[in-house]
Amino acid sequence: MSGQFGMYPFIISSLWVTVIALLLAGPVCLLSAIHLTQYARPIVLRIMHPVIDILAGIPSVIFGVWGVLAIVPFVGDHIGPLFGKSITGYSILSGGLVLAVMIIPFILNILIEVFRTIPEELTEVTLSLGATHWMVIKHVLLRKAFPGIISAFSLGLSRAFGETIAVLMVVGNVTRIPTGALQPGYPLPALIANNYGEMLSIPRYDSALMLAALVLLVIVILFNIISRWLIFRVERNT
Amino acid sequence: MTGKAKINIEHLDLYIGKQHILKDVSTQIPEKKITVILGPSGCGKTTLLKSLNRLTDLYSNVKVSGKIFIEGEDILHTNMDITEIRKRMGLLSQRPYPLPMNIFNNVAYGLRISGRTNKIVLRKRVQHYLELVNLWDEVKDRLHDPASSLSIGQQQRLCLARGLSVDPDIILADEPTSALDPISSEVVEKKFIDLKSQYTVVVVTHSLQQARRIADYAIFMYLGEIIEQGPASEFFSDPKEELTKSYLKGLFN
Question: What are the pLDDT digits (tens) for B79-95?
């Protein structure tokens, strides 16, 4: 122990897990929101609303247990062999999958509100120009909703990046720079949760963990600044 | 009625859920005239307007029965493409709803989706329609600014230009001046009078003064029924029904 610490593997693991979660959850949420607000009968939305709220209220440790029981074996037994690899299933991909399911209700809830607050008259006037319903969605509603979509995704991103326990339970926690989604990782929040209070006998370990927490905070703030900037740019142009 | 009927509505009934909104509405809307639909709020005049281009399809709890003929074609029971029917009618709503695009594209959008994408043609057409609504001089140097940067009155004229751009032959206007200042209202009203040489205009309003100024044909609705209708000169000077008389006197609104 030379008192030297590196944070690179943890930051990379966190980014991997977050990006996978957002890539999986984003399209699902966007398409679901469009379906629920534009195509489905009103009763479907009325049923789905409480379902989404309940999903959002499930404690994250439950998602973690579900991940260990269902996702980890699934990734280990089916996804791994698909790429010719023999793995345990504790991996970045499992973390991303569990996280995706966890952030879906948050993103979806906001997206539904975003689409519902667009005045119906905008749809009506666009239809009367001879547009089809799909053109209305593609050319008008998505553009109108863009700032809201960015807000929803950035909230999901921040939640995913900071989520600790559910990811920690399925991601493997191996201190190595991951080079693929099927390898185990060790995200920043898991590092802090696993080690703070445990390893403090090692000199300067607590300072290193404090720095890790700061890095976590700064990255989340950066995400938010970038999304604000995107929203600002779009609103100026429409 | 004088002149040819453009739209012929026969026994139109419309329910929203269990509410009976339009009750056995039958009327004829004359071609190339301004028809004004009058009545207190909640009488179904906006609903009647929206059923003319089947925007009522958007809501699953709306049930429509009856017939609406536009130049002989029953648009409620037709194999024709609904977007083709809608393209024949320009819609102007109560408040302006510009598309989330720049000024130029707001007018060009309707042209683009109907397949006119040649840049030079687009420019000419956009200029033509913006001139038609007296907006060109105000916006010609800022065509690429967002439409939302215009004043409300300018936005409403932009929306009128957008509606005209797809070359409709009917203009449906739902209280088009209720959110506008007096000067913009006057511009829009005058525009309607200019436009009636080429278009059939249907205006919903609850402003009696406006109706008197622009109407050629008037329809008075109350609680979902047509109480009285006729050429504007007769309708305003010599109403037959008691309800119409008291409405015209301003006894209720």
Answer: 888 888 888 888 888 88
The C-alpha angle B247, B248, B251, rounded to 5 degrees, equals 45
Contact A185, A171 (CB under 8 A): yes
* Full-model pTM: 0.85
CATH homologous superfamily, domain B5-95+168-249: P-loop containing nucleotide triphosphate hydrolases (3.40.50.300)
Residues A108-145 pLDDT 10s: 999 999 999 999 889 999 998 888 999 999 999 999 99
The DSSP secondary-structure symbol of B146 reads B
Size of interface A-B (CB pairs under 8 A): 75
Residue-range definition of the domain harbouring residue A104: 8-237
As a dihedral over the C-alpha atoms of residue A14, residue A15, residue A18, residue A24, rounded to 10 degrees, the angle is: -140
Question: Which residue carries 């379902």 as its tokens?
Answer: A51
For an interface test with B, give the residue of A129, A137, A138 to mutate (most B CBs within 10 A).
A129
Average pLDDT over chain A, rounded to whole?
A: 88
How far apart are the C-alpha atoms of B23 and B14, rounded to whole Å?
Answer: 7
Q: Where does chain A have alpha helices with state H? A: 8-34, 42-57, 60-66, 72-74, 80-82, 92-116, 120-127, 133-135, 142-162, 165-170, 188-195, 205-237
Chain centre distance of CA A6: 25
The answer to whether residue A125 neighbours chain B at the CB level (below 8 Å) is yes
